[in-house]
Amino acid sequence: ILFPFLSDYASRLYGIELHDKFKEVRDMLQKEGIRADLLKGDIMELPVKENTFDVIVCLSLLEHLMPDMLQDALLQMKKAVRKNGFLIIGFPGENIITRMIFSLFYKDHDKNVHISNHQLIMEAIRKNFILKKTINYPWVFGNRLSLYYTCLCEL
Which of 21, 32, 66, 93 gets the most CB atoms within 10 Å of its CB? Predict the structure, then answer.
């Protein structure tokens, strides 16, 4: 979903994933006319050199990490982005609304799905980056009851 949009703005796209389904992903992207370099990797040890990317987009990943892993994951992204680069980081909020929604879809949500909450993630982001802008969805709920947060960060 995101790659077709990003391909309109980027001369080169990379995707880093834990899974081994690169052929299936590459085939889907080719059907859309999108060329991307797909790499197997882990956020805790990105398989790229320092200062590789102009922009890093990290969506719905950090909430799955243990709180003590957030700092290292963000440092990996910090190393991989160029000096004047940006990071776009998205993650779900944790509040009464999201707990209710996730409990409907995930039987063991509180135990296994979202380990780090949005407050811990925001705290870690602020320690590592200049937070240029935060958008919460839907905005009508205000910051405390947001379902999802997206942060624009720079070094």
Answer: 93
* HSE value, Cβ hemisphere, 13 Å, CA-based, for 112: 4
pLDDT at 109 over 80: no
Greater model confidence, 56 or 142? 56
**Mean pLDDT for all residues in the chain:** 90
- In 3D space, the residue among 120, 43, 39, 122 whose CA is nearest the CA of residue 80 turns out to be 43
CA distance 13 to 10: 7
CB 71 within 8 A of CB 47: no
Q: Structure pTM?
A: 0.88
The full 3-state SS of 76-135, as one line of letters, equals HHHHHEEEEEEEEEEEECCCHHHHHHHHHHCCCHHHHCCCCCHHHHHHHHHHHCEEEEEE
